[in-house]
Design brief:
Elements (H helix, E strand, L loop, with lengths): L1 E8 L9 H13 L4 E3 L4 E4 L2 H16 L5 E8 L7 H13 L1
Helix pairs in contact: 1-2
Family: Belongs to the UPF0045 family.
GO cellular component, one term: cytosol
Length: 98
């Protein structure tokens, strides 16, 4: 399964940034060893349901350490039997653009 998630504290740093809290979440995703990528709006993670959801929970708990309230958005592409889709889905589109 592929999951795109965005997590942020509901309150910002004094300068309006959420970067420190988000960095803690990204650190957890990267340490998980699951295929992942982070962009300006989401972190994408690929793996089995239980392992992906466990990483999202750990990331949420890390952000909760920075604030009493957290916003979490999750979008999932659940396609049993398919792996390597983090890059393959993008490549299929790129191939059509060439």
């Amino acid at each position: 399964m592929l999951v795109a998630f965005s997590i942020a504290p509901a309150a910002t740093d004094p300068d309006g940034s959420v970067a420190a809290a988000v960095a803690e979440a990204v650190r957890i995703v990267r340490a998980s060893g699951l295929p992942s990528e982070t962009n300006a709006m989401f972190t994408n993670v690929e793996g089995e349901w239980d392992e992906v959801m466990a990483v999202i929970k750990q990331a949420t708990d890390a952000v909760l350490a920075h604030a009493d309230r957290v916003s979490l958005v999750i979008k999932a592409d659940i396609r049993p039997g398919h792996t390597g889709q983090l890059t393959a889905k993008v490549q299929r589109v790129e191939d059509l653009l060439d």
